[in-house]
Amino acid sequence: MRNYKYIVGIDEVGRGPIAGPVMVGAFCVARKDTNTVLTDLEGITDSKKLTEKRRELYVERIKALQKKGLVSIAIVGVSAAIIDAQGIVPAIKSALARTLRKLNINPEQVYVYLDGGLSAPKQYIHQETVIKGDSKIWQIGAASVVAKVLRDKKMIEYGKQYPGYGFEQHKGYGTKLHREMIKENGVTDIHRKTWIK
Q1: 149 contact partners, CB below 8 Å, separation of at least 6
Q2: Does residue 69 fall inside a structural domain?
Q3: CA 142/CA 37 separation, integer angstroms
Q4: I need a surface site. Which of 1, 118, 143, 165 has the fewest CB within 10 A?
């Protein structure tokens, strides 16, 4: 008998862009509530495979489930300055540990599913890293959706704060337009300076 009470899915979004934060999201559901929650979130998967409208719809449903006490969410963002100072891998690692601490669950009572190359701190004795986990494990998919929606909103705000860069369109990815804007206007506080050639 597996002696855990909760299942947590973890994913990160924003690893690739040259501007803006990287976000680590954790989505937690009690084992006993899994079927109930999945009924409401049927079809949830890797955020990249869903339209913006669909992602936002799932986030509304997740918030409703959160209000009922059926799920909990923790998201930690890491700024471009920290990514520049620490490197992306250590920055994600520390953010991941913080998301798990924010859930405030006994590490021995939780089974943690992580996407791709991610791993949880050693005290999380039940953990599994799944390649393309955001498509295969719905709890990881839910974490990716919540983190993606939050990051996109943040990039839209940055679009207003730093007009002319198009952050609301490209969300910080190194598109042709974005690189042209950097050449024209220079880098901002939210650019990952070590990433810009």
Answers
A1: 47, 55, 56, 59
A2: yes
A3: 11
A4: 1
